[in-house]
């Protein structure tokens, strides 16, 4: 391992299992709520669900792959940069699109959780696409 790989300090691979377990627990929580087996306030359920999904996505993004070399680090960095540009572009462009279409085009209720969720999904999509086309 060279100096760049040591400086990145990604989490060990076992954290992927923890992230997938957290996703499974969050989905199980959602199923319990929709089946009305457990009664929980709607806001609390939304907060717990979004926090669980975002935390598991963060763990997945920060966990190292089985083979972590210089090319993988570059791909990871490019996907992160593309995701950041997507998020900034969305925040900058959405008010103009809402103004142009009288607020009917983009849903303003997406909020911070929605933006982070779409940025993570964009990151994972770009990472998968770039790894596939090495």
Automatic annotation (TrEMBL):
Q: Which UniProt keywords apply?
A: Membrane, Transmembrane, Transmembrane helix
Give me the segments passing through the membrane. 20-38, 44-62, 74-93, 113-130
Record's protein name:
Uncharacterized protein
Instruction: List the top taxonomic levels of the source.
Output: Bacteria, Pseudomonadati, Bacteroidota, Bacteroidia, Marinilabiliales
């Amino acid at each position: 391992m060279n100096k760049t790989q040591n400086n990145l300090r990604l989490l060990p691979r076992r954290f992927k299992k923890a992230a997938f377990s957290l996703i499974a627990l969050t989905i199980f929580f959602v199923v319990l709520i929709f089946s009305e087996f457990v009664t929980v306030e709607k806001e609390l359920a939304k907060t717990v669900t979004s926090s669980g999904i975002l935390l598991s996505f963060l763990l997945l993004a920060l966990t190292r792959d089985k083979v972590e070399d210089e090319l993988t680090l570059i791909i990871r960095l490019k996907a992160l940069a593309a995701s950041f540009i997507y998020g900034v572009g969305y925040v900058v462009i959405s008010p103009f699109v809402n103004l142009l279409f009288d607020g009917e085009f983009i849903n303003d209720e997406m909020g911070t959780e929605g933006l982070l969720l779409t940025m993570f999904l964009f990151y994972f999509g770009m990472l998968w696409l770039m790894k596939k086309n090495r």
